[in-house]
User: Fold this.
Amino acid sequence: MTSKIPSRRRGSKSVLDQSILQQQTLAVRAGQERSEQGEHAEAMYLTSSYVFESCSEAAERFTGDAGGNVYSRYTNPTVRNFETRLAALEGAEDCIATASGMAAIMSVCMAHLRAGDHVVCSKSVFGSTIVLLNNFFAKFDIAISYVALTDVDQWRSAMTEKTRLLFLESPSNPMNEVGDIAALGALARDNDCLLVVDNCFCTPALQQPLSLGAHLAVHSATKYIDGQGRCLGGAVAGSAEMIEPVRGLVRAGGPTMSAFNAWVFLKGLETLSLRMQAHSQAALQIATWLDSQHWVERVHYAGLASHPQHALAAAQQSAFGGVLAFEVVCGDLDPQRAAWQFVDGTELMSLTANLGDAKTTIVHPATTTHGRLSPDARAEAGISDNLIRIAVGLDAIVDIQDDLLRGATALGVA
Assistant:
């Protein structure tokens, strides 16, 4: 995909070569095509369909012999603007937007898998991803094997002649484990299969999986790309060859992003780099502080030098992101009760399963985001009953610390 950067000269058809521009510039300008009105901000095309000048033009557009829009389930100028901009940031040839992050994962699987195929998936993925694979794709004779994210040998051992797709999150939700994307990309290529990386926690502002060897990067735009918890959306970025079947699935099946949501995400991309740096800096300070508290058993954050994949994270990410998790000291209490008592004792942080928001959020993963997994599956993913996840927002650090102390006080361990 060649992203267009329009000239400021009205009426000029000249464009700037995006290859000479930095990522921060692409985040605010890539993909925009101004109308004859000369609007500065991106236009929002709230229309379900498009008109044709003649029957022959309509026929040519429907057959694909002529360019142009037909129906917003197929293409929409605002959505295409978002896709083009995100592709530019990911260093991808193409991108397709979807109605949610899970719609992006579902669309990739439906487009690139068939009955009899085998998927190797990290154990350390979002709970809904596991539910999607186990409860739905398994019904269509797709076999799934789960392996430890950080153990490349387990990935290699799990491969069969029917393996078609490797799937991981890095960093993982909520344990902050980091996968070796380059090593797994090489493994995928050696075995003629695809490596798909969920880049939700880092976004292209901090990590570009395609440059590390992944075939496709998927996103929940709902999270950091929006940045303020307003809209649902997802996206898949990769080569034109890899994206084309996904686009066909989205157009036929309909998990399409709305023009309004795409416009909101465009605005989010403009500040993505600034926000991700702020989230990362604040999360590192909170993680370091938590690591020194006597009421914390362990902190899971790749930015800490004590993290087992700290060096790998530093090599493939430009910063460590805004999400961390920690296990709270339980004393004589049941672990779940201790975690609940801690979370219920906080007052400032938002108790919600979403993340990537300007507002700091707190949640108990074992009974929310990963609550539909079996206890054994949660244990294999390292999600204990006393684990608490924080997505550090843009609140003042001291206010977040004070709120965490409220939780510790409510638990009686401060």
